[in-house]
Amino acid sequence: MPSEINNLSKLCIHTITTKPWQLEVAVEKYAKAGVKGITVWRDALEGRDIYKSGRIIRSAGLEVVSLCRGGFFPSASAEKRQLAIDDNLKAIDEAAAIGAPLVVLVCGAEPAQPLEKSRSQIKEGIAKVLPQAQKCGVKLAIEPLHPMYADDRSAVNTIKQANDMAEEINSEYVGVAVDVYHLWWDPDLEKEIYRCGENGKLFAFHVCDWKTPTTDLLLDRGLMGEGCINVPQIREWVEKTGFNGFNEVEIFSNKYWGMGQDEFLNKIIQAYLKHT
Amino acid sequence: MPSEINNLSKLCIHTITTKPWQLEVAVEKYAKAGVKGITVWRDALEGRDIYKSGRIIRSAGLEVVSLCRGGFFPSASAEKRQLAIDDNLKAIDEAAAIGAPLVVLVCGAEPAQPLEKSRSQIKEGIAKVLPQAQKCGVKLAIEPLHPMYADDRSAVNTIKQANDMAEEINSEYVGVAVDVYHLWWDPDLEKEIYRCGENGKLFAFHVCDWKTPTTDLLLDRGLMGEGCINVPQIREWVEKTGFNGFNEVEIFSNKYWGMGQDEFLNKIIQAYLKHT
């Protein structure tokens, strides 16, 4: 049995989870509710002084866990691949500015080319931005995405692939983000989580749930406990590796975005205490 | 490069692909268009004399490639598991009656229990119906389903799992159905297709395409050439193993079911000749 969660000291929420809230509102509400970490999505920073946003977050007693997201490296066009590199360099600078130790990479995929080619462009892209990440002291987490996103969101679709890639790149600045939504079905999950942790590559842990039925490929994630994922079991595997970071709640949901966000935040906290 | 397809001698269509057509209409239309194989979905047999349906199909010059579908073995309820066994025995009898040498298994999953448990119930279920399959001379194909169906459709989500299970069961009557839609993203696909074929376990090959964007988890499959799957490449791997069976077009699509089915059949044939 995994250790019981009886406080919020490891609870982090992604700003996109409560998308209707502006960053400043989210910070205030999270802090008031006892949430201790925040992962900032880049859209939440639009039009803002990033250093100031970082100060607002820290003043509220929240820790910036990561910046979401970099990646989207593959393209059939060399020009677009360069634009992606530039954008990832910018994301690394933004992470440094806001005080985030990590950028999560949604690696990308190009439907018009073989997955193998997209994967090699991903590796190439990471290699190109790695010096800037090192310089800024910002780590990069390869997030394997569910195979239903293999067409245009990520050609990295299993934790084994992410582990392989991180090991090949072989930098202490490059690791893996484990998200239960993407990986829960994988018969190799437990084994590959241990491999990831033993190699010091387990950089982040994201939670939510898979609902039955799921009515949208992107925007119908569930709260922990609402679906079929055994989140506590996966958390136990993650913690067995020595992982001591945050449990990050990342939910894209038209249903939840459509309700009062105070009520939703309360639901998140209950689901976190009971089903994570 | 895979061998070019320049005739329809290996083209099979699943009745569900042209769902608006009654079985007899589908048979007539397929035959007239030069299609040589048909996979019959059980809903198409409702209210019919199955022996007679088999005769109609053969008289039209079509070969019955398989019956779809058995499976759905797992359940938290022992009573429901027994109902599934009974239904699979019935499917095997129906296959024998219509002259189908194969029943395709959509293995099933129970969201309320661990995948491992569902997988062991699947193995148990197959073992229980295997004697009837042998008696009737009807083979069973485990069809690994895309991981997005791991909640309630199949706990077998990679070809490696299907190969492992077929090898453990170790009967010449149990093999694997390879469907590009479910498996195209898997980095081990080529290797596991060879393994499947070398063991004499490659019983069926299904084709369609993955569209970008895909707007429905179940009913938005594309025609070959419409999406990101390299169907000819996968067919080449399949044929390298010595597979000499049909290429079965299996498309669930609200879009295509909503158009004139004569026009759709013509599109299927063009897509088959150009992109399979």
Describe what you observe in this structure.
The structure is a homodimer of 276-residue chains. The first copy, chain A, is of the alpha/beta class. The first copy, chain A, contains 10 helices and 8 strands. The two termini of chain A are 12 Å apart. The interface between A and B is medium-sized, with 26 and 26 residues.
Highest CATH level, the class of chain A: Alpha Beta
Topology of chain A as a string of helices (H) and strands (E): EHEHEHEHEHEHHEHEHH
Could you tell me the strand content of chain A as a percent range?
15-25%
Instruction: Write out the CATH superfamily name of chain A.
Output: Divalent-metal-dependent TIM barrel enzymes
Number of helices of chain A: 10
Which stretches of chain A are low in confidence, meaning pLDDT under 50 for 5 or more residues running?
A: none
Largest sheet of chain A: 8 strands, parallel, barrel
* Cross-sheet strand order for the largest sheet of chain A: 1-2-3-4-5-6-7-8
Instruction: Calculate Rg of chain A over CA atoms.
Output: 18 Å
Which CATH architecture of chain A is right?
Alpha-Beta Barrel
- CATH topology annotation of chain A: TIM Barrel
SSE blueprint:
The structure is a homodimer of 276-residue chains.
Chain A: E1 11-14, H1 23-33, E2 37-41, H2 50-59, E3 63-71, H3 78-98, E4 102-106, H4 115-136, E5 139-142, H5 159-169, E6 174-179, H6 180-183, H7 189-198, E7 202-207, H8 231-240, E8 247-249, H9 254-257, H10 261-275
Helix pairs in contact in A: 3-4, 7-8
